[in-house]
Amino acid sequence: MNKIKVGDQLPTFTLQDQNGNDYQLHPEMNKILVIYFYPKDDTPGCTKEACSFRDEFEAFTDLGAEVIGISSDDVESHRQFAEKYRLPFTLLADTENTARNLFGVPKSLFILPGRTTYLVDKSGIVQHIFNSQLRFDKHVETAIEKLKEIQQAQ
Length: 154
Fold this sequence. Notes:
Glutaredoxin; 5 helices
């Protein structure tokens, strides 16, 4: 398992979203992406993180970024989670850990699926990585901060 680093290209993969539609991610998307991996739908920490992304969703769209959440939960779990908390962004079902393995998302305490956020620019290049299992709110805060820095640099 290789680990994606800053400066690496976004890998190409397809997963189903919370509506059961295929969603392909690839370097030629020409979109700024905030891709966050989280352990499990509807658990306290993951709900807090998802709701933070929801509450700041307009800030992300104002910065031209698309937010995508990925966990190993299935499509139905994602659909229920998105509906329950009115999540306005895409959730991808990585039931086989395809994306998690492509990115090399580290496990926490050697057993828990990791919580890592990746910022990808329009060229498909990873510009920033934030990894913290317990600092749920820092994922959103850090992503917005880094997106602003990227915009100022352009």
